[in-house]
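Re-run with default settings, no changes from the original entry. Doing this only to confirm the output is reproducible before filing.
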Amino acid sequence: MLRIIHTSDIHLGSKFASLGKKADAQRQALKDSLAKVVDHAVASKASLVLITGDLFDSNFPSPQSVSFVRAQLARLNEARIWTMILPGTHDCLSKGSVYVREDFSHNLSYVYVFNDTAVFTKEIPDIDATIYAKPSGTNKSTESPVAFLASATKSATTQYKIAMAHGSVQIEGKSAPDDMPITLREVAESGVQYLALGHWHGAQEFSFGNTIAWYAGSPEVTYQEGKGGIGQGYALEVDVMETAKVYPHTQETISASSSGSGLLSVGVKPVKISEKIVREVDIDMQIYENVENVVYELEKLADLNCLLLVNVFGFAESAVFVDPEHIMQELEDKFFSIKVKSTTALKLPEVTALNYPEELVIGQFVRIMQKKLEEAQTPQEHKMIENALQIGIAELEGKNVLSE
């Protein structure tokens, strides 16, 4: 059996400007997350650690961050755990890359960095594995980082064939064509048992055909919008084995993958690394009516490990002033961080058609809705149509009162 620990997108050195006085604590949390991943690799007797891009937030990390990474790699080397590092988009393999300036494998025989754009393969005979990865010299590219696998893996003689890639699985509306595109067909035709993905910050699966493929996501909260899958705060424990092994966990993948030496199974188990969570809450002012009610409701969610994102929207009465800064100040000691965005609009006075010319779209809308008001059969129906009229006018006027 080959046990792999897969991690990615740690982003050491992130500025976290939006976190204010909590920025230093979160930068330290990133370092702690890497140390915890190493702890787990050693404790679980892993044979291989894969870091699939964006270990650093930029190609110019501080000397302290570089020294810290060297120390963690030395721990893995001492435990004789092979460690593969792939540059990402933030720390791409450009001329000024940190992986060009720094030799992270110096005196560490079990550490290998894919720091040559002409070398895509690393064979490791002592664990009977071949690792494939294609580093990019830029942070944007329309070239797939996995297209080469279908032909490259045919000549492999090792039992285990594992690939690493930093890019975006192509999903309409979610993936840009210049963001290192990866198609599901390329995943299926890759010829590897496990494809370790990086770039997306939420741990999630994109297996296709006989290839098991996962994004590890970030082991610590990096960017508040970095969600998807089961979220941030995980590393993946991956077992490639000859016989199926069932994990007593709800978050798992057990699948079969063909190989030249017979049928292999791949088990993927997300391992919780960080206690922090990102939570997003929508607040409709038509329901909560005043700011005091909003603060009261949000206080119920108090959690010092939570980065809370609040979207306040809808209509507020003229006497109500929604101040995001006030809400954040009231609750800042209840959460690790809280950000409030308001798109509320003042409720309009009684609408009359005279205020909206008939030849305009908004005028036609008002007249249609007023007719519906006149035909309403119940107070509830009248209220619903009245609210729709208010929202429609606000949207047509470009006030954007609906939650995004």
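Residues 23-43 form the longest helix (21 residues). The chain has a mean pLDDT of 89.
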